[in-house]
């Protein structure tokens, strides 16, 4: 198996999936990797809701499209939200790319480390998935819609607690593309040294 | 070298360090791992300030203790901040455990994914450090003090940009304890399945 450095280099956002479900043993290994992430004060309060039921996936897909389609945006709106709203108004918006597994990450409302802790969980899961040949992509739409009453009601019916806020999510599945895990040379994330 | 699953299992927060500096090649590998993390809209705007200069480290240590010692807290204050304030009022507060390297992570002010993106960068760095035998611990104190004028001025002198907010940080160094990377069995971070 690859070293962690190979895995980090090969992790890419995958946005086209084959329909077959992620093997159970792989899913469990990905979840265990996420649950082992560090957290502020060792709180470990990230809650992962693993949605695989086709009816629930279809309901979330339709609901997100409907709620985004109602939203008004302007040039001050974050560009990814603008894109989601525009795609939803056009119709046919697949916010988790028809992946067979959608993981919703949540954490305690009002907890200052909620986003950071859950991000560590999700990053561990994306790396573990990459190591196993499972494609992943961070899914932020349910986080953006966290205060939408219809979306919250649907998520609470799936296991979200009233005192939890959606912090992020992941699409998981086998990539359609044969070269989904090719390394990318990227710049950005600059470094300053004080020596 | 270990697989990513071994590395994730062995990553532990290290809070006691040997004084020698992290080898340059290892530091560069850890930074490269962090910079390869995913980010919202592929923005890659996490800025890592790597502080190794002894005078700068000592200045930050003293400043954080002084500013926390001025703070009033009550039972509603987040417990880790309460602990930092109490330790600072007592004196001798080592917020980065005298590690030879302190990494300050920052991101754009007002960017909704700032905390999540930087957390993915820092988690990659903690995993890479673990794989190389370098101890790490998330350091949140400069994030908590991000709006403190004296702390901001000190950080801006080290390279923080005016339009950046501190999102987190890391202590890095070789662990004092021989068993610093033993795996821990932990619960928490619960999972709900919808199938």
Task: Describe the secondary structure blueprint for this structure.
The structure is a homodimer of 195-residue chains.
Chain A: H1 4-10, H2 24-35, E1 47-51, H3 54-69, H4 79-90, E2 101-108, H5 114-131, E3 135-138, H6 141-144, H7 149-158, E4 164-173, E5 191-194
Antiparallel strand pairs in A: 1-2, 2-4, 3-4
Helix pairs in contact in A: 1-5, 2-5, 3-4, 3-7
Question: Which features characterize this protein?
Answer:
homodimer; 195 residues; alpha+beta; four-stranded antiparallel beta sheet
Summarize the structure.
2 copies of one chain form a homodimer. Chain A is α+β, with helices and mostly antiparallel strands.
Low-pLDDT stretches of chain A are none
| Helix-strand topology string of chain A | HHEHHEHEHHEE
The largest sheet of chain A is: 4 strands, antiparallel
Structural class by SSE content of chain A: alpha+beta
Distance between the termini of chain A: 37 Å
Q: From the structure provided, what is the oligomeric state, counting identical versus distinct chains?
A: homodimer
Widest beta sheet: strand line-up of chain A:
1-2-4-3
Question: Average pLDDT of chain A, to the nearest integer?
Answer: 97
Number of strands of chain A: 5
Q: What integer value in Å does the Rg of chain A equal?
A: 17 Å
Which two protein chains have the largest interface (Cβ within 8 Å of the partner's Cβ), and how many residues from each? A-B, 69 and 69 residues
- Give the overall shape of chain A, derived from the CA principal axes: globular
Strand content of chain A: 15-25%
User: Number of helical runs of chain A?
Assistant: 7
What is the helical fraction of chain A, as a range of percent?
40-55%
């Amino acid at each position: 198996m690859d070293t962690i450095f190979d895995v980090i280099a090969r992790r890419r956002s995958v946005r086209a999936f084959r329909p077959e479900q992620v093997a159970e043993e792989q899913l469990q290994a990905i979840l265990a990797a996420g649950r082992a992430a560090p957290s502020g004060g060792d709180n470990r309060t990230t809650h992962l809701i693993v949605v695989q039921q086709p009816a629930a996936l279809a309901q979330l897909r339709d609901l997100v499209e409907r709620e985004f389609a109602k939203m008004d945006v302007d040039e001050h709106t974050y560009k990814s939200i603008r894109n989601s709203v525009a795609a939803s108004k056009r119709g046919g918006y697949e916010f988790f790319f028809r992946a067979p597994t959608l993981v919703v990450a949540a954490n305690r409302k009002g907890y200052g480390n909620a986003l950071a802790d859950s991000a560590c969980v999700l990053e561990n899961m994306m790396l573990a998935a990459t190591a196993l040949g499972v494609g992943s992509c961070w899914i932020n739409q349910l986080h953006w819609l966290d205060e939408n009453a219809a979306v919250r009601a649907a998520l609470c019916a799936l296991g979200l607690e009233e005192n939890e806020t959606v912090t992020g999510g992941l699409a998981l599945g086998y990539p359609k593309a044969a070269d989904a895990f090719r390394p990318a040379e990227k710049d950005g994330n600059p470094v300053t040294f004080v020596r």
